[in-house]
Amino acid sequence: LCVKRSLEMIIGILGILKAGGAYVPLDPEYPQERLIFILEDSQVKLILTQEKLVESIPQHQASIICLDTEWEKITQEKTSNPESGAKPDNLTYIIYTSGSTGQPKGVLVNHSHVVRLFAATDPWYHFNSQDVWTLFHSYAFDFSVWEIWGALLYGGRLVIVPYLISRSPELFWELLCQEKVTILNQTPTAFRSLIQVEKAPPNPPCTGGLGGRGTEDDLKLRLVIFGGEALEINGLQPWFERYGDQHPQLVNMYGITETTVHVTYRPLSMADLGSTASVIGRPIPDNQVYILDQYLQPVPLGVTGQMYVGGAGVTRGYLNRRELTEERFIPSPFSPSKLYKTGDLARYLSKGELEYLGRIDNQVKIRGFRIELGEIEALLAQYSAIWESVVVVREDTPGDKCLVGYVVPQRSITLTIEEIRQFLKAKLPEYMIPNTFVILEALPLNSNSKVDRRALPSPEQIHRSLADNFVAPCTPIEEILALIWAEVLGIEQVGIHDNFFELGGDSIRGIQVIAKARKMSFNLSLSQLLQHQTIQELASLVSQELNPLPTQNTEKFSLISEN
Q1: Which phi-psi region, left, alpha or beta, contains residue 244 (left: φ > 0; alpha: ψ -120 to 50)?
Q2: Carrier domain spans which residues (predicted)?
Q3: CATH code for 127-348?
């Protein structure tokens, strides 16, 4: 299934499942190399797509049906409700996640895995036909499974959030109020942005199909469910101060694609504020979570170990990756079933709740996407102009995790950040491309001659070291744009020749810049920011828009002289 966010996306999923098949989501924004791998690995027989996307799909052996233009053919089929013949242990979808070898891996999920997820959590949530959900996340991310079926299984309403609105907290807040959304699913990072919008004073009505920003009375949320990455509870304080902790109820859920979206559940309250622990609660009733040592023996209460998940949520394994499946999906020492080896560190607390303590390997989660840093580093190693590199997650601004790539060029080669970015753009989805790259003469080493990740300079340090080239804004337009950039990027100052993307910008931050610029009546678009990446260039565009060249009225003249 390769479609944009649209009604066709849901029609495609329902049609595939009704026909007894399984769907493989292909995000049209993925680079060609990743799409080629997924098509070859999954060996799909049929691609449902939209006409405008056909040319962007790599060469393949599958048949194609365009869901938006081939209705003349489609309507010739029977209109009766077909018997799908699907059984609980039949495959329902394959979602590809990041892999440390440089290749993504497809997770195989059955119908039974999804159905039992809602059956097991129903006593907590009581989803019903009056609920309004948002499809906020990409359908190539398994949080979307929870969003889609949470609405459809209970006869609720599903609001498909346009991509640009999902990346603009201001517009998304308006949508929540306008559509009277009751169930909101967010990564903590996305929700923090929403809180900042909610705290700000109301603005005049915006364009883009929505009215002015909603007020507290317009909000109809009854549940906000977090997932996709670790939650820092203190970031929720402004929300609790305004709304309390009951209406809506905020819930933290931990989960993994290999164990069907969610594994644990914990309602949050104001009493949690002040804690630095990432408490993820108790297992869903039909799951079991074990904290084991290296010998697969349970560790004592309060002692750190690796988290293993057992129960009805554990999926089949990986497509075409037998060895990796056997390594991660192991026989349980406690029952005839299997355990999934998560690679996450945790411990049980005295009240029977789990505290998440991070990863034991080089894998991270940012904005809900699971990323193997090794996959990015493996691809950087393929670039002939790079001698060595390392990718890390930095959190120089509290609550704002970002990927930073440190690169050492080959001798006598001049390497630009734009070249690195374009190389990765052809191989990785955007969420896996580091926000910032830092070019170094050498990587710092520790006493064991290993890369000393703690000694890597922050991008802000590098930015300050280049202050000799700093040119301050000198016009009102440049000053306003510089202030917007500094606020969005979380840096102290921005020069008119600084490059937005070299300062740590990306498309998500770009959309935030454009939204703030439009509030100042600067009519800019994201495509203009992608083309004009400095304050000076953008200010010139704005100046031309606000002060167009005067037109002159001239008298008609003859092409041939009277003489």
Answers
A1: left
A2: 472-546
A3: 3.40.50.12780
Radius of gyration of the chain (CA): 26
Alpha carbons 233 and 156: distance in angstroms, whole number: 30
- Whole-angstrom CA distances from 313 to 115, 134, 212, 257, 368 are 10, 24, 42, 10, 19
Q: Are 321 and 105 in contact (CB under 8 A)?
A: yes
pTM summary value: 0.75
Of residues 506, 496, 366, the one with CA closest to residue 437: 506
In whole angstroms, give the CA distance from residue 333 to residue 252: 29
CB within 8 Å of 454: residues ≥ 6 apart: none
> Do residues 58 and 335 touch, judged by C-beta distance below 8 A?
no
The answer to whether 194 and 188 are in contact (CB under 8 A) is no
For domain 467-546, the CATH architecture is Orthogonal Bundle (1.10)
* CA atoms within a 13 Å half-sphere pointing along the CA-CB vector of 467: 6
Whether the Cβ atoms of residue 337 and residue 329 lie closer than 8 Å to each other: no
Residue written as tokens 């969420």? 431
Domain boundaries in the chain? 127-348, 372-457, 467-546
Nearest Cα residue to 2 out of 185, 156, 174, 140: 140
Per-residue pLDDT tens listing for the chain (563 residues): 999 999 999 999 999 999 999 999 999 988 888 999 999 999 999 999 999 999 999 988 899 999 999 988 888 988 888 888 889 999 999 999 987 666 899 999 999 999 999 999 999 999 999 999 999 999 999 999 999 999 999 999 999 999 888 888 889 999 999 999 999 999 887 888 788 776 554 443 333 345 455 556 688 999 999 998 888 888 898 899 999 999 999 999 999 999 999 999 999 999 999 887 889 999 999 999 999 999 999 999 999 999 999 999 999 999 999 999 999 999 999 999 999 999 999 999 999 999 998 888 767 777 777 787 878 887 888 898 988 888 998 887 766 788 999 998 887 888 888 889 889 988 888 888 998 888 888 888 664 556 788 888 887 766 655 545 678 888 889 999 999 998 888 777 888 888 888 787 877 788 889 888 888 888 888 878 888 889 999 999 888 877 654 544 444 433 344 44
Return the CATH number of the domain spanning residue range 372-457: 3.30.300.30
CB of 370 closer than 8 Å to CB of 97? yes
Residues sharing a CB contact under 8 Å with residue 440, sequence separation 6 or more, in sequence order? 406, 407, 408, 457
Q: Which residue is associated with the tokens 């009519």?
A: 523
CA distances from 281 to 97, 201, 370, 433 (A): 25, 35, 21, 32
**Dihedral angle sign, alpha carbons of residues 190, 401, 256, 23:** positive
Q: Give the Cα separation of 227 and 251 in Å (integer).
A: 9
What is the rounded distance in angstroms from the CA atom of residue 3 to the CA atom of residue 48?
8
Nearest to 29 by CA among 143, 181, 163, 228: 163
Name the amino acid, one letter, at 199: K
- 405 and 432 Cβ atoms separated by less than 8 Å: no
For residue 91, the 8-state DSSP code is E
DSSP letter for 386, please: E
